[in-house]
Amino acid sequence: MTPPLPRRRPTGVSTRALRTDFFTPRPPVQWLSPGELARTGLQVAMAEGIGAYLDKREQQILFSDEAFREDEGRDELWLDYVADTGDGFHATYAVAYSLGQESLTVEGVDRPLPRANVLVFGGDQVYPTPSPANYDDRLRGPFTAALPEVPPGQAAPTIYALPGNHDWYDGLTAFLRVFATGRETIGAWRTRQRRSYFAVKLPHNWWLFGIDAQENAYIDEPQLEYFHRIINESLRDGDRIILCTPEPAWVQGHDDPDVYRVTDAFLRTVIDPAGQEAWLQQAYGGRFVPPPKRITVPLMISGDWHHYVRYERTDDGPSGDRDDRLRDDRQRDDRRHLVTCGGGGAYLLGTQYLPRTITTPPPDMRPPKSETVRRYTRQVRYPSLARSFWLGLGAPIRLPWRNPGFIAMLGFVQALLWYAWSRAGGSPNFAVVVLLALVLAGTTFLAAGLGAPHRGRLWVILLGLLHAAAQVLGVRAVMVPLVEYAWQPTLPRPTAALTYNLERIWEYGRYYLEWLGWYVAYGLVAGLVSAVVVGLYLVVASLFRRNINELFSAQRIEGYKSFIRLHIGPTGELTAYVIGIPRVRRALPAWRFLHWKANPSGQPWEPWFTPRARLRYQLIDTFTIR
Fold it and tell me: Quick one: pLDDT at residue 53?
């Protein structure tokens, strides 16, 4: 069990005031810094290379397999869904502070929305890797500061969590330690789950299912058995399920159809009556087999993509199915809403290239797959198309400004290239060829990054070549005039042999120090120019739907956060309020004391820090399922 964070209250917001006795607030991850690129790349390579050996899900069969109840004594329930938290302090704490408030006044809602009874983390609880220190500093610390204790006379809210790809980098070791012991607390919130997936009974005929798909690889047999048994023993005909998945495979499948296979397999083999019947035949061994349950999934929610978008089914019913039962209201609501809400704290990902319509399963997905085809149309996205496009255009400015380590790395390569070119007398030699190959490899790797679709290798090669030409010829075209007219070393090269004479040593030392200073200055300026070129490349590549993820991760935009507050009313209808936080701090430098003030004399359940400027909440979407 992880020791709880102390219940004392901090007297300031500085790192010195917090790190010894509380936690260390962290800045947003600099995804393009050399160290972060190396560490994350190694972690990802290890997760993909030996991920199957680190998979701990089969071992979870030894843990409790109960379904949890959040319906006892409740005629209605409030539930918050948030995903992709645990990045920089400002964004993460702004969201945690909002979730912990006793009620929220939201523009566009005619009544305050009370704090939720249940909080669901939809994946990627910490960035960039799931170390114990990152969980403490990037997640547990901010959420404890937001709601340190349970207010008097109130029940402790509950947390359920799904692992995302960043939680999987250590094979779920840290995730299970934080969320799956059944006795952890994160501030006032308490955990209950014992596995990396869960089934929760909600009031009326609602259920909450969370599946662990291990980066869309597969769903393990014990997990399938768990959900089959819960459905067989606990669900009734007409029950409705809110299904949480780690990734929005329904949107991702537009570019890579096979990504949807895991989600489709779960719906086909666990939820659909034919899949239930096959399991029941096997489980009962030919004896009396009960009929499958007629259940629906009106709402599917995921994070992973750091924005909000909702797709709604536009056909009247599943195509190819003539059963009249599917024409009633309940069946028409099956798989009605597909929602992505990953605005919990990580960098913003723009919405400008989301498809207008999608189909599940994707037409080009490999079998086996569901025979029932459903079509969806995009209803709402946040931020808007125009705002997303405008924010994307800021990459040439924000990328150099917010990634100084990346500038240093590019400057080092550019300085080496200038030195090798000068030593070669303007004609290519082995060193120049090696450096040019290094530049080309880097630009091609970027063109084939996480933001690029899995298809279109020709585009990757073409964009890599064009970007490499811009890095070599474009940067040189800018730097040659600066070198010629701005500053050239003036000291002559020493001609006398170096001896132990102090005057001779000083002569050589001055000469080489001047050249060293010149190359450092050249590297800084050339690195800045090179970073601007990278930003321009990302803008251009995004127009061809490449490197969209890198376009926004490089900018580290903290605003435009979002989460969903769901309400199950006394009559069983479910209403979703999607709440947006356009700005998590003031338009000032990121120093914490400019945006947050300590609350050392507050009540034990009050937040440790309060915003200096009131956070603004706006309703970006709402829908009701009856």
Answer: 52
Which pLDDT belongs to residue 323? 45
Q: How many residues does the chain have?
A: 626
**Alpha-carbon span 373 to 394, nearest angstrom:** 40
Q: Which of 382, 328, 339, 314 is nearest to 242 (CA)?
A: 339
> Peptide bond before 453: cis, by omega within 30 degrees of 0?
no
Angle at CA 587, nearest 5°, toward 585 and 592? Answer: 50
**Cα 596 to Cα 593: distance, rounded to the nearest angstrom:** 5
The β-bridge partners of 312 are 337, 377
Q: How far apart are the first and last CA of the chain?
A: 41
CB 213 within 8 A of CB 263: yes
Which neighbouring-strand residues pair with 200? 68, 208
Q: For the residues of 133-144, what is the DSSP string, one character each?
A: HHHIIIIIHHHH
Beta strands in 513-571 (DSSP E): 561-568
User: Helix (H, G, I), strand (E, B), or coil: what is residue 563?
Assistant: strand
Spatial contact of 555 and 456, defined as CB atoms under 8 Å apart: no
Alpha-carbon distance 325 to 294, whole Å?
10
pLDDT of res. 193: 92
CA gap 86, 136 in Å, rounded = 9
Q: What is the pLDDT of residue 545?
A: 87
User: What does the pLDDT read at residue 40?
Assistant: 66
Backbone angles phi, psi at 388, to 5 degrees: -65, -45
pLDDT at residue 455, as a whole number: 56
Ranges of residues in the chain with a pLDDT under 50 are 318-327, 450-453
Q: H-helix or E-strand containing 489?
A: none
**Contact between residue 158 and residue 70 where contact means Cβ atoms under 8 Å apart:** yes
3 state SS of 299: strand
Q: Which of 78, 227, 219, 92 is nearest to 154 (CA)?
A: 78
* DSSP letters spanning 92-159: HHHHHHHHHSSEE--BT-SSPEEPPSEEEE-S--SSS---HHHHIIIIIHHHHHHS-SPPTT-PPPEE
User: Which among 233, 238, 231 is positioned nearest to 295, based on CA atoms?
Assistant: 238
Residue 186 is inside which H or E element, if any?
A: strand 185-186
| Beta strands 158-161; 185-186: pairing state | unpaired
**How many other β-carbons are positioned within 10 Å of the β-carbon of residue 282?**
11
CB count, 10 Å around CB of 1? 10
What pLDDT, on the 0 to 100 scale, is given for residue 327?
44
Helix residue ranges per DSSP H, 147-287: 173-179, 221-234, 249-252, 261-266, 273-284
Residue 532 CA: distances (Å) to CA of 260, 411, 481? 37, 12, 18
Residue 531 confidence (pLDDT) = 95
| Structure tokens, 272 | 């659909």
Contact 460, 438 (CB under 8 A): no
Predicted pLDDT of residue 332: 59
Q: How far apart are CA 540 and CA 42, in angstroms?
A: 29
Return d(Cα 341, Cα 381) in angstroms, integer. Answer: 10
Those residues whose C-beta lies under 8 Å from the C-beta of residue 133, and which sit 6 or more positions away, are none
- The Cα 323–Cα 131 span in angstroms is 51
Residue 336: in which H helix or E strand, if any? none
Contact 347, 306 (CB under 8 A): yes
How far is it, in rounded angstroms, from Cα 339 to Cα 329? 20
User: What is the reported pLDDT for 423?
Assistant: 78
